[in-house]
Write a structure and sequence with these properties.
Layout (H helix, E strand, L loop, with lengths): L2 H12 L4 H13 L7
């Protein structure tokens, strides 16, 4: 992934308030053909 995408994901995860929110974001990204390795 590019540097810009990494910064975007970092800022997303910093603003995640709960594990459910993280799972929701992950599902949205996967449905848009992104893959997240945690």
């Amino acid at each position: 992934m590019g540097e810009k995408n990494s910064q975007l994901l970092d800022s997303l995860f910093k603003n995640v308030s709960s594990e459910n929110e993280l799972m929701r974001i992950e599902n949205v990204l996967q449905s848009n053909n992104f893959t997240i390795y945690l």
